Amino acid sequence: MNAPAQAAHTQRLLAQVAEQLGHPVPDEFAAALRQVPRDRFLPETVWVRDGQGGYLPLNRGTEPEEWMAATYTDQTLVTQFTDDLPTSSASMPSMVLRMLQLTGVTAPERTRQQPFNVIELGTGTGFNAALLSALLGQGAVTTVELDPALAEQGERNLKTAGYTPTVVQADAAKGYPGSAPYARVLATFSVDQIPPAWITQTAPGGRIVTPWTSAWCCYGTLALTVSASGTAQGQFHDFASFMPMRPSSEQQTANGAHAQVTGAEELTSATELSPWAVAGGDLDAEFHVGLTVSGAFFAWDTTGEHAPVRLRVEDTTSTSWATVDYDGAHTTEFTVTQAGPRRLWNEIAAAYASWENNGRPGVGRHGLTVHASGEHTLWLDSPDHPLTPSAEGRAKISKNP
Protein backbone atom coordinates (compact mmCIF):
# COMPACT_ATOMS: atom_id res chain seq x y z
CA MET A 1 0.00 0.00 0.00
CA ASN A 2 1.42 3.40 -0.98
CA ALA A 3 2.02 6.16 1.56
CA PRO A 4 -0.98 8.37 0.64
CA ALA A 5 -3.38 5.40 0.86
CA GLN A 6 -1.82 4.35 4.17
CA ALA A 7 -2.24 7.87 5.55
CA ALA A 8 -5.88 8.04 4.42
CA HIS A 9 -6.70 4.70 6.04
CA THR A 10 -4.98 5.71 9.28
CA GLN A 11 -6.71 9.08 9.36
CA ARG A 12 -10.10 7.39 8.98
CA LEU A 13 -9.23 5.01 11.80
CA LEU A 14 -8.12 7.90 14.04
CA ALA A 15 -11.47 9.62 13.45
CA GLN A 16 -13.33 6.46 14.47
CA VAL A 17 -11.14 6.02 17.56
CA ALA A 18 -11.72 9.65 18.58
CA GLU A 19 -15.46 9.16 18.25
CA GLN A 20 -15.29 6.05 20.43
CA LEU A 21 -13.12 7.79 23.05
CA GLY A 22 -15.29 10.89 23.07
CA HIS A 23 -12.30 13.19 22.56
CA PRO A 24 -9.45 13.69 20.07
CA VAL A 25 -6.71 11.08 20.18
CA PRO A 26 -3.83 12.52 22.26
CA ASP A 27 -0.95 13.62 20.03
CA GLU A 28 1.54 11.05 21.34
CA PHE A 29 -0.84 8.17 20.68
CA ALA A 30 -1.92 9.53 17.30
CA ALA A 31 1.73 9.71 16.25
CA ALA A 32 2.26 6.09 17.34
CA LEU A 33 -0.80 4.93 15.37
CA ARG A 34 0.48 6.73 12.28
CA GLN A 35 3.91 5.16 12.75
CA VAL A 36 2.66 1.59 13.30
CA PRO A 37 0.57 0.29 10.34
CA ARG A 38 -2.04 -2.14 11.65
CA ASP A 39 -2.18 -4.16 8.41
CA ARG A 40 1.42 -5.36 8.89
CA PHE A 41 0.40 -7.16 12.08
CA LEU A 42 -2.52 -9.17 10.76
CA PRO A 43 -2.58 -12.61 9.08
CA GLU A 44 -3.81 -13.19 5.55
CA THR A 45 -7.19 -14.26 6.92
CA VAL A 46 -9.06 -12.47 9.68
CA TRP A 47 -12.58 -13.03 10.97
CA VAL A 48 -15.18 -10.34 11.61
CA ARG A 49 -18.56 -10.59 13.30
CA ASP A 50 -21.30 -11.63 10.88
CA GLY A 51 -24.13 -10.02 12.88
CA GLN A 52 -25.70 -13.39 13.68
CA GLY A 53 -23.44 -14.56 16.49
CA GLY A 54 -20.80 -16.05 14.22
CA TYR A 55 -17.75 -14.96 12.26
CA LEU A 56 -17.10 -14.16 8.62
CA PRO A 57 -13.62 -14.80 7.17
CA LEU A 58 -11.89 -12.17 5.08
CA ASN A 59 -8.84 -13.08 3.03
CA ARG A 60 -6.32 -10.48 1.95
CA GLY A 61 -5.53 -12.25 -1.30
CA THR A 62 -9.08 -12.79 -2.54
CA GLU A 63 -10.83 -9.81 -0.89
CA PRO A 64 -8.14 -7.14 -0.60
CA GLU A 65 -10.43 -4.12 -0.36
CA GLU A 66 -12.73 -5.68 2.23
CA TRP A 67 -9.74 -6.99 4.21
CA MET A 68 -8.06 -3.56 4.25
CA ALA A 69 -11.27 -1.77 5.14
CA ALA A 70 -11.78 -4.15 8.09
CA THR A 71 -8.17 -3.67 9.17
CA TYR A 72 -8.58 0.09 9.43
CA THR A 73 -11.98 0.02 11.09
CA ASP A 74 -12.23 0.36 14.86
CA GLN A 75 -13.28 -3.22 15.50
CA THR A 76 -11.94 -6.46 16.97
CA LEU A 77 -10.59 -8.94 14.43
CA VAL A 78 -10.19 -12.61 15.30
CA THR A 79 -6.80 -13.86 14.14
CA GLN A 80 -6.75 -17.48 15.35
CA PHE A 81 -9.23 -20.27 15.97
CA THR A 82 -8.51 -23.41 18.03
CA ASP A 83 -11.08 -26.21 18.08
CA ASP A 84 -13.60 -23.87 16.42
CA LEU A 85 -13.21 -21.27 19.17
CA PRO A 86 -11.46 -17.89 18.78
CA THR A 87 -8.22 -17.99 20.80
CA SER A 88 -6.44 -14.85 19.62
CA SER A 89 -7.59 -11.53 18.29
CA ALA A 90 -6.51 -8.03 17.34
CA SER A 91 -8.34 -5.75 19.77
CA MET A 92 -10.26 -2.63 18.77
CA PRO A 93 -7.68 0.16 18.36
CA SER A 94 -9.81 2.41 20.59
CA MET A 95 -9.67 -0.26 23.30
CA VAL A 96 -5.91 -0.57 22.86
CA LEU A 97 -5.55 3.19 23.36
CA ARG A 98 -7.83 3.21 26.40
CA MET A 99 -5.66 0.53 27.97
CA LEU A 100 -2.48 2.45 27.15
CA GLN A 101 -3.93 5.64 28.61
CA LEU A 102 -4.91 3.83 31.81
CA THR A 103 -1.48 2.21 31.99
CA GLY A 104 0.15 5.63 31.89
CA VAL A 105 2.90 5.47 29.30
CA THR A 106 2.82 9.08 28.10
CA ALA A 107 5.81 11.41 28.46
CA PRO A 108 4.66 13.16 31.69
CA GLU A 109 4.11 9.79 33.39
CA ARG A 110 7.47 8.46 32.27
CA THR A 111 9.39 11.31 33.83
CA ARG A 112 8.11 10.30 37.28
CA GLN A 113 9.76 6.90 37.31
CA GLN A 114 13.15 5.84 35.99
CA PRO A 115 13.98 3.41 34.55
CA PHE A 116 10.67 2.91 32.76
CA ASN A 117 10.61 -0.72 31.66
CA VAL A 118 7.25 -2.08 30.53
CA ILE A 119 6.11 -5.68 30.14
CA GLU A 120 3.21 -6.67 27.93
CA LEU A 121 1.62 -10.02 28.71
CA GLY A 122 0.09 -11.57 25.60
CA THR A 123 2.02 -10.62 22.45
CA GLY A 124 -0.63 -11.78 20.00
CA THR A 125 -0.05 -10.10 16.65
CA GLY A 126 2.65 -7.78 18.05
CA PHE A 127 0.70 -4.60 17.27
CA ASN A 128 0.44 -3.43 20.86
CA ALA A 129 4.12 -4.15 21.48
CA ALA A 130 4.93 -2.05 18.42
CA LEU A 131 2.87 0.86 19.77
CA LEU A 132 4.68 0.57 23.10
CA SER A 133 8.01 0.52 21.26
CA ALA A 134 7.04 3.64 19.31
CA LEU A 135 6.06 5.38 22.54
CA LEU A 136 8.87 4.24 24.83
CA GLY A 137 11.75 3.02 22.69
CA GLN A 138 12.32 -0.63 21.90
CA GLY A 139 14.79 -1.27 24.71
CA ALA A 140 12.12 -0.50 27.30
CA VAL A 141 9.59 -3.09 26.09
CA THR A 142 9.32 -6.80 26.88
CA THR A 143 6.42 -8.87 25.56
CA VAL A 144 5.52 -12.43 26.63
CA GLU A 145 3.41 -14.97 24.73
CA LEU A 146 2.44 -18.49 25.82
CA ASP A 147 1.56 -19.83 22.36
CA PRO A 148 4.80 -20.67 20.46
CA ALA A 149 3.22 -20.06 17.06
CA LEU A 150 1.86 -16.67 18.12
CA ALA A 151 5.16 -15.70 19.73
CA GLU A 152 7.03 -16.52 16.52
CA GLN A 153 4.51 -14.74 14.32
CA GLY A 154 4.37 -11.71 16.61
CA GLU A 155 8.16 -11.38 16.61
CA ARG A 156 8.22 -11.75 12.84
CA ASN A 157 5.58 -9.03 12.44
CA LEU A 158 7.51 -6.73 14.75
CA LYS A 159 10.78 -7.18 12.87
CA THR A 160 9.06 -6.68 9.51
CA ALA A 161 7.69 -3.37 10.78
CA GLY A 162 11.09 -2.36 12.14
CA TYR A 163 10.67 -3.05 15.87
CA THR A 164 12.80 -5.30 18.07
CA PRO A 165 11.48 -5.38 21.64
CA THR A 166 12.33 -8.38 23.78
CA VAL A 167 9.92 -11.19 22.77
CA VAL A 168 9.68 -14.11 25.17
CA GLN A 169 7.79 -17.36 24.61
CA ALA A 170 6.72 -18.32 28.12
CA ASP A 171 3.81 -18.51 30.53
CA ALA A 172 2.60 -14.91 30.95
CA ALA A 173 1.30 -15.73 34.44
CA LYS A 174 4.95 -15.95 35.51
CA GLY A 175 5.92 -12.63 33.96
CA TYR A 176 9.56 -12.37 32.92
CA PRO A 177 12.18 -11.69 35.60
CA GLY A 178 14.90 -11.12 33.00
CA SER A 179 13.85 -7.50 32.37
CA ALA A 180 12.33 -6.71 35.78
CA PRO A 181 11.56 -4.55 37.65
CA TYR A 182 8.82 -2.97 35.56
CA ALA A 183 7.24 0.42 35.85
CA ARG A 184 4.17 -0.88 34.06
CA VAL A 185 2.64 -4.34 33.60
CA LEU A 186 -0.01 -4.55 30.89
CA ALA A 187 -2.04 -7.68 30.17
CA THR A 188 -3.91 -8.14 26.90
CA PHE A 189 -6.15 -10.92 28.25
CA SER A 190 -8.51 -11.10 31.22
CA VAL A 191 -7.81 -12.71 34.60
CA ASP A 192 -9.80 -13.42 37.76
CA GLN A 193 -6.77 -13.42 40.06
CA ILE A 194 -3.55 -11.42 39.96
CA PRO A 195 -0.57 -13.76 39.54
CA PRO A 196 2.00 -13.14 42.31
CA ALA A 197 4.84 -12.75 39.79
CA TRP A 198 3.22 -9.66 38.32
CA ILE A 199 3.42 -7.91 41.68
CA THR A 200 6.91 -9.05 42.66
CA GLN A 201 8.26 -7.96 39.26
CA THR A 202 6.69 -4.49 39.49
CA ALA A 203 8.77 -1.65 40.93
CA PRO A 204 7.33 0.23 43.95
CA GLY A 205 4.94 2.85 42.59
CA GLY A 206 4.50 0.85 39.39
CA ARG A 207 1.16 0.04 37.87
CA ILE A 208 -0.51 -3.19 36.77
CA VAL A 209 -3.37 -2.94 34.26
CA THR A 210 -5.38 -5.97 33.22
CA PRO A 211 -8.82 -6.78 31.84
CA TRP A 212 -10.93 -8.68 34.36
CA THR A 213 -13.17 -11.70 34.18
CA SER A 214 -15.22 -13.93 36.44
CA ALA A 215 -17.06 -17.13 35.68
CA TRP A 216 -20.25 -15.05 35.73
CA CYS A 217 -19.21 -11.90 33.83
CA CYS A 218 -16.25 -11.13 31.56
CA TYR A 219 -16.04 -7.35 31.82
CA GLY A 220 -14.06 -4.49 33.32
CA THR A 221 -10.44 -3.39 33.62
CA LEU A 222 -8.41 -3.30 36.81
CA ALA A 223 -5.61 -0.81 37.49
CA LEU A 224 -3.43 -1.51 40.54
CA THR A 225 -0.56 0.45 42.07
CA VAL A 226 2.14 -1.60 43.80
CA SER A 227 3.55 -0.37 47.13
CA ALA A 228 7.01 -0.91 48.58
CA SER A 229 5.49 -3.44 50.99
CA GLY A 230 4.37 -5.66 48.12
CA THR A 231 0.67 -4.79 48.33
CA ALA A 232 -1.16 -3.92 45.12
CA GLN A 233 -4.32 -1.84 45.29
CA GLY A 234 -6.64 -0.08 42.89
CA GLN A 235 -10.04 0.19 41.27
CA PHE A 236 -11.92 -1.34 38.38
CA HIS A 237 -12.86 0.65 35.29
CA ASP A 238 -15.99 0.40 33.21
CA PHE A 239 -14.67 -0.90 29.90
CA ALA A 240 -13.17 -3.92 28.14
CA SER A 241 -14.14 -7.51 27.52
CA PHE A 242 -11.12 -9.61 26.58
CA MET A 243 -10.46 -13.28 26.03
CA PRO A 244 -9.36 -15.00 29.26
CA MET A 245 -5.76 -15.92 29.92
CA ARG A 246 -4.94 -19.26 28.32
CA PRO A 247 -3.63 -21.70 30.95
CA SER A 248 -0.34 -23.44 30.42
CA SER A 249 -0.38 -27.23 30.00
CA GLU A 250 0.92 -27.43 33.58
CA GLN A 251 -2.07 -25.42 34.85
CA GLN A 252 -4.53 -27.44 32.77
CA THR A 253 -3.24 -30.66 34.36
CA ALA A 254 -3.46 -29.15 37.83
CA ASN A 255 -6.99 -27.83 37.32
CA GLY A 256 -8.45 -30.96 35.73
CA ALA A 257 -12.19 -31.55 35.76
CA HIS A 258 -14.16 -31.95 38.96
CA ALA A 259 -15.79 -35.30 39.54
CA GLN A 260 -19.47 -35.66 38.71
CA VAL A 261 -21.59 -36.85 41.64
CA THR A 262 -25.03 -38.25 41.02
CA GLY A 263 -27.86 -38.68 43.47
CA ALA A 264 -27.25 -35.42 45.37
CA GLU A 265 -30.22 -34.22 47.38
CA GLU A 266 -32.24 -31.60 45.49
CA LEU A 267 -33.84 -28.79 47.47
CA THR A 268 -36.76 -26.85 46.01
CA SER A 269 -37.74 -23.35 47.07
CA ALA A 270 -39.18 -20.16 45.64
CA THR A 271 -37.52 -16.81 44.97
CA GLU A 272 -38.82 -13.33 44.27
CA LEU A 273 -35.56 -12.42 42.57
CA SER A 274 -36.00 -12.49 38.81
CA PRO A 275 -33.29 -14.50 37.02
CA TRP A 276 -33.10 -11.67 34.47
CA ALA A 277 -32.02 -9.28 37.25
CA VAL A 278 -28.74 -11.16 37.71
CA ALA A 279 -28.19 -12.60 34.22
CA GLY A 280 -30.16 -10.39 31.85
CA GLY A 281 -27.46 -8.03 30.65
CA ASP A 282 -27.14 -5.46 33.44
CA LEU A 283 -23.34 -5.34 33.50
CA ASP A 284 -23.15 -3.52 36.83
CA ALA A 285 -25.24 -6.20 38.56
CA GLU A 286 -23.52 -9.07 36.76
CA PHE A 287 -20.07 -7.67 37.53
CA HIS A 288 -20.94 -7.47 41.24
CA VAL A 289 -22.34 -11.01 41.29
CA GLY A 290 -19.28 -12.31 39.47
CA LEU A 291 -16.94 -10.75 42.02
CA THR A 292 -18.80 -12.00 45.07
CA VAL A 293 -20.01 -15.47 43.99
CA SER A 294 -16.75 -17.08 42.97
CA GLY A 295 -16.90 -19.89 40.42
CA ALA A 296 -20.59 -19.54 39.50
CA PHE A 297 -21.54 -19.38 35.83
CA PHE A 298 -24.88 -19.45 34.03
CA ALA A 299 -26.61 -20.50 30.84
CA TRP A 300 -30.14 -19.83 29.59
CA ASP A 301 -32.38 -22.70 28.47
CA THR A 302 -35.26 -21.56 26.26
CA THR A 303 -35.98 -24.95 24.68
CA GLY A 304 -39.04 -25.40 26.87
CA GLU A 305 -37.94 -28.90 27.82
CA HIS A 306 -38.02 -28.17 31.56
CA ALA A 307 -39.83 -24.82 31.79
CA PRO A 308 -40.76 -22.03 29.38
CA VAL A 309 -37.48 -20.33 30.43
CA ARG A 310 -34.82 -21.74 32.76
CA LEU A 311 -31.66 -20.18 34.13
CA ARG A 312 -29.13 -22.87 34.99
CA VAL A 313 -26.29 -22.02 37.33
CA GLU A 314 -23.25 -24.23 37.89
CA ASP A 315 -20.00 -24.09 39.82
CA THR A 316 -16.60 -24.43 38.21
CA THR A 317 -15.05 -25.87 41.35
CA SER A 318 -17.62 -28.37 42.63
CA THR A 319 -20.71 -30.35 41.62
CA SER A 320 -23.09 -27.66 42.91
CA TRP A 321 -25.84 -26.41 40.61
CA ALA A 322 -29.12 -24.52 40.69
CA THR A 323 -31.99 -23.88 38.30
CA VAL A 324 -34.44 -20.97 38.32
CA ASP A 325 -37.62 -21.57 36.33
CA TYR A 326 -40.04 -19.05 34.85
CA ASP A 327 -43.44 -20.67 34.30
CA GLY A 328 -44.50 -18.32 31.52
CA ALA A 329 -47.09 -16.53 33.63
CA HIS A 330 -45.89 -15.41 37.06
CA THR A 331 -43.21 -12.73 37.13
CA THR A 332 -43.00 -12.19 40.90
CA GLU A 333 -42.07 -15.71 42.00
CA PHE A 334 -39.80 -18.29 40.43
CA THR A 335 -39.10 -21.93 41.28
CA VAL A 336 -35.57 -22.70 42.47
CA THR A 337 -33.95 -26.14 42.63
CA GLN A 338 -30.47 -26.52 44.15
CA ALA A 339 -28.07 -29.39 44.79
CA GLY A 340 -24.49 -29.92 45.83
CA PRO A 341 -22.31 -28.60 48.65
CA ARG A 342 -23.00 -24.94 47.76
CA ARG A 343 -26.41 -23.28 47.69
CA LEU A 344 -25.56 -21.29 44.62
CA TRP A 345 -28.83 -19.42 44.21
CA ASN A 346 -28.79 -18.35 47.88
CA GLU A 347 -25.30 -16.93 47.33
CA ILE A 348 -26.38 -15.14 44.16
CA ALA A 349 -29.47 -13.71 45.86
CA ALA A 350 -27.33 -12.45 48.74
CA ALA A 351 -24.88 -10.86 46.31
CA TYR A 352 -27.71 -9.11 44.47
CA ALA A 353 -29.13 -7.85 47.78
CA SER A 354 -25.69 -6.50 48.68
CA TRP A 355 -25.56 -4.72 45.34
CA GLU A 356 -28.97 -3.12 45.89
CA ASN A 357 -28.25 -2.20 49.52
CA ASN A 358 -25.08 -0.40 48.41
CA GLY A 359 -26.94 1.75 45.89
CA ARG A 360 -26.50 -0.43 42.81
CA PRO A 361 -22.83 0.49 42.38
CA GLY A 362 -21.30 0.68 38.94
CA VAL A 363 -18.16 -1.19 37.98
CA GLY A 364 -15.97 1.82 38.85
CA ARG A 365 -16.96 1.81 42.53
CA HIS A 366 -15.43 -1.64 43.01
CA GLY A 367 -11.82 -2.07 44.05
CA LEU A 368 -9.31 -4.74 44.93
CA THR A 369 -6.40 -5.09 47.30
CA VAL A 370 -3.89 -7.88 46.71
CA HIS A 371 -1.92 -8.39 49.90
CA ALA A 372 1.70 -9.50 50.04
CA SER A 373 0.41 -12.91 51.16
CA GLY A 374 -1.49 -13.23 47.86
CA GLU A 375 -4.90 -12.80 49.50
CA HIS A 376 -7.41 -10.79 47.42
CA THR A 377 -9.77 -8.40 49.25
CA LEU A 378 -12.64 -6.82 47.32
CA TRP A 379 -14.11 -3.49 48.40
CA LEU A 380 -16.54 -0.72 47.46
CA ASP A 381 -15.39 2.91 47.19
CA SER A 382 -12.54 2.41 49.66
CA PRO A 383 -10.53 -0.41 51.23
CA ASP A 384 -12.36 0.45 54.47
CA HIS A 385 -15.57 -0.99 52.98
CA PRO A 386 -14.88 -4.70 52.29
CA LEU A 387 -17.35 -6.33 49.92
CA THR A 388 -19.30 -9.15 51.62
CA PRO A 389 -22.83 -10.33 50.76
CA SER A 390 -25.17 -10.06 53.74
CA ALA A 391 -27.14 -12.90 55.34
CA GLU A 392 -30.07 -10.49 55.70
CA GLY A 393 -30.15 -9.96 51.96
CA ARG A 394 -30.20 -13.72 51.40
CA ALA A 395 -33.23 -14.11 53.70
CA LYS A 396 -35.03 -11.15 52.12
CA ILE A 397 -34.84 -12.30 48.53
CA SER A 398 -35.03 -16.10 48.73
CA LYS A 399 -37.73 -17.87 50.72
CA ASN A 400 -38.74 -21.46 51.31
CA PRO A 401 -42.32 -22.35 50.30
Net shape: globular
Strand content: 25-35%
On the 0 to 100 scale, the average pLDDT is 90
| Total count of helical runs of at least 4 residues | 13
Structural class: alpha+beta
Widest beta sheet: strand line-up: 7-6-5-8-9-10-11-17-18
Question: In which range does the helix fraction lie?
Answer: 25-40%
Summarize the structure.
The chain has 401 residues and is α+β, with helices and mostly antiparallel strands. Helix content is 30%, strand content 26%.
Salient structural properties:
30% helix, 19 strands, nine-stranded mixed β-sheet, 401 residues, six-stranded antiparallel β-sheet, alpha+beta, single chain
Tell me what you see in this structure:
- Helices cover 30% and strands 26% of the residues.
- With 401 residues, it is α+β, with helices and mostly antiparallel strands.
- It has a 9-stranded mixed sheet, with helices on both faces. Strands 13-14-15-16-12-19 form a 6-stranded antiparallel sheet.
- Helix 2 (27-35) packs across helix 6 and helix 11 (283-292) crosses helix 12.
Secondary-structure map with pairings?
Blueprint: H1 3-21, H2 27-35, E1 45-49, E2 55-59, H3 64-71, E3 77-82, E4 85-90, H4 93-103, H5 107-110, E5 118-121, H6 127-136, E6 141-145, H7 148-160, E7 166-169, E8 182-187, H8 196-200, E9 202-211, E10 221-226, E11 232-237, H9 249-255, E12 266-271, H10 275-279, H11 283-292, E13 296-301, E14 309-315, E15 321-326, E16 334-339, H12 344-357, E17 366-370, E18 376-380, H13 391-397, E19 398-399
Parallel strand pairs: 5-6, 5-8, 6-7, 8-9
Antiparallel strand pairs: 1-2, 3-4, 9-10, 10-11, 11-17, 12-16, 12-19, 13-14, 14-15, 15-16, 17-18
Helix pairs in contact: 2-6, 11-12, 12-13
